[in-house]
Amino acid sequence: MRPVVIAANWKMHTTPAEAGELARLIAARTREPDVVRVICPPFVCLAAVRDALLDEPVAIGAQTVHHEARGAFTGMISAEMLVGLASWVIVGHSERRRDAGETDEIIGRQLGRALDAGLRPILCVGEQLDDREAGRAETVVERQLRGALTGHDPVRLGEAGLVVAYEPVWAIGTGRSAHGADAAAMADAVRGAMGNLGWGAAADAVPVLYGGSVTSANIEEFLAEPAIDGALVGGASLKADEMAGIVGRAGITARARSTARARTAGSGAR
Ligand code: 13P
Fold first, then answer.
1. What does the alpha-carbon distance between residue 221 and residue 183 come to, in Å, rounded to a whole number?
2. How far, in Å, CA of 183 to CA of 218, rounded?
3. Cα dihedral angle (121, 39, 206, 188), rounded to 10 degrees?
4. Quick check: CB of 40 below 6 Å from ligand 1?
5. Which pLDDT does position 1 carry in this prediction?
6. For residue 177, which atom of ligand 1 is closest to its CA?
7. Could you report the per-residue pLDDT of 67-119, keeping only the tens digit for each?
8. Do residues 167 and 208 lie in contact, with contact meaning Cβ atoms separated by under 8 Å?
């Protein structure tokens, strides 16, 4: 049974003082016990957000992590440093691939560091616009998955609760989101590719989120797709009203899915 997850990626927004306040507000406006909520603030805001959320069941994530465990890497943050501040970590975000030159191989090593430190990874994949227009979207995402996941034990990653976020690059920050059906087809492609990478049936248990211009107005289109288990939200996650709408809708989905599952299990038992 896959959880419904709404993760907020605040990117390079908020000061520590603003972050604590915003986290508190969002937490109070999104109390949906059936939805896994995650907030990923900038590194320097992690402590403020942790302190603001001490009494709230909202998980905290980092936005990236260095691929080495420690060493002479000025300005970088290791997985070990995040322990006590974050329990999740985003790896492979397209803005890191673009701005920090992160390759699939580096992202695979980041996954390894996350696992070593007990952090739950959200692995981002997604194609560029020209890839989609040329009909290469699935091939690109499969290559990204193979590059990052090869060499990792599916059982270990599964136990760590690996989440994949499908974020088409052309949909990020553009106001132009994917169609729900296309995103669902990509979620199926993600699980298919993982199945081929040695995950077998375990690929079906991996939550796949959609990311790219998600708002309270369009979240329904994605959650209506059984293949999609939630969203990785950028711009809209900085607004408490938007998060209230998004998580509220996710709560309806989570309850409907668990009722449907209980019904199926009940009919199987008879
Ligand atoms: P936007 O929701 O701002 O398009 O960003 C999506 C994203 O990159 C989340 O990681």
1. 10
2. 13
3. -110
4. no
5. 86
6. 4
7. 999 999 999 999 999 999 999 999 999 999 999 999 999 999 999 999 999 99
8. no
